[in-house]
Amino acid sequence: xxxxxxxIVVIALLLSACGYHLRGAFELPAxxxxxxxxxxxxxLREQFKQIMRSSSGRLAxxxxxxxxxxxxxxxxxxxxxxxxxxxxxSNEFELYYHLDYxxxxxxxxxxxxxxxxxxxxxxxxxxxxxxxxxxxEAVIRNEMYQQAVHTIVNRARxxxxxxxx
Length: 165
Known about the structure:
Blueprint (H helix, E strand, L loop, with lengths): L1 H16 L16 E5 L3 H13 L3 E2 L8 E17 L5 E15 L5 E15 L5 H35 L1
Parallel strand pairs: 1-2, 1-3
Antiparallel strand pairs: 3-4, 4-5
């Protein structure tokens, strides 16, 4: 029993020493602990909420209490057919996600001018497993929203850390 506890303590110490952190978690600057997202789809806002929660931050309900405001513009999600089968059914799709955003503080002072985020993914559409492919597209879309949020948060961290120096 004592050896099990010792092994658990050693593993915990090794994991903390190697810089282990939960997937998707960020070390956020103090001004990013409370973020307000203006605009954007429900899926994008949900990804912001999840990432902020995993990084010990929170999504603010209003801009007054926020350390940083992320303004989302021109969000667009498209799907197009890349190839067709001999029967005219779609075999391959491309998903394209685009948005523009800018960063401001709670007083609406611009921290970073409008920047684009573009993400493209392709996937094969097997006609024998149509139900599973609908789920695959939903998973891919969710991952694209996650990637967009990670990109925005990383760029915001860089801007805030550069401004603090």
